[in-house]
Amino acid sequence: MARQTRIDRLLERMEQAATDLGLEVRYENIAKPGYAGGLCRVKDTWVVILNKGAPTGEQVEALASALATRDTEGVFLPPDVRDLVDQHKKE
Question: How far apart are CA 54 and CA 23, in angstroms?
Answer without folding.
Answer: 20
